[in-house]
Amino acid sequence: xxxxxxxxxxxxxxxxxxxxxxxxxxxxxxxxxxxxxxxxxxxxxxxxxxxxxxxxxxxxxxxxxxxxxxxxxxxxxxxxxxxxxxxxxxxxxxxxxxxxxxxxxxxxxxxxxxxxxxxxxxxxxxxxxxxxxxxxxxxxxx
Amino acid sequence: xxxxxxxxxxxxxxxxxxxxxxxxxxxxxxxxxxxxxxxxxxxxxxxxxxxxxxxxxxxxxxxxxxxxxxxxxxxxxxxxxxxxxxxxxxxxxxxxxxxxxxxxxxxxxxxxxxxxxxxxxxxxxxxxxxxxxxxxxxxxxxxxxxx
Lengths: 142, 147
Description:
The complex is a heterodimer.
Chain A: H1 6-27, H2 33-38, H3 49-69, H4 81-97, H5 102-111, H6 115-138
Chain B: H1 2-21, H2 26-32, H3 42-61, H4 83-99, H5 103-109, H6 115-144
Helix pairs in contact in B: 1-5, 5-6
């Protein structure tokens, strides 16, 4: 069980949205984690500096929140390591061919009403739900 | 310098949003998609909050001629809905459903210093590099006309 957190999730979502708006207003860029991460991997894009800085900020934020406020950030990874590795490989391959993930298509693309992003988001929401159903209720959990 | 500092600050806002929202917590992701089990609807609120800010924000900003620190907006080219988009997104969902991590949740989760987040991100990076290699190899073969 995880606790239903409508207020925190709405607030967190609004901050994700604020970040996307600021990245567009200041840099003219889509806040898609797939695109930003892929562009700093070798061979890196020519313009990799701002992307590395964005990623550093994204990683530092939870650590800073814990250090400054003493808050705990719930984290529970219930999946065995071999499946985590398989899941990571599959996600990496899928987002590369699909040109984006939850942040790029699901937030930035949907906000622009991009038909490609709406189609991508609808597709991965359905396959994610189907996968969770098969893993938890057909196989009986990992 | 302004570009680096601003990107760092905007990344901090993104990471804080992910951490507060629950997107960095695989159990919460998996429960959101588990309609037949311990359903946790929180992530619908994340999406609603994000879109409620991004949609009007983009509409305002994209009316301007250029962003503050660049000469133009870099928007994805308006390609149509094609097979790589749909097949890739379908495959992404399978990986998300197995692991509970998506890229935007996993990167900030690294800041929690959890081994599972590091393991997932390492595998995801390997997946991105493999897919990029395969895609380039396919393109090169198509370009030279050798099948």
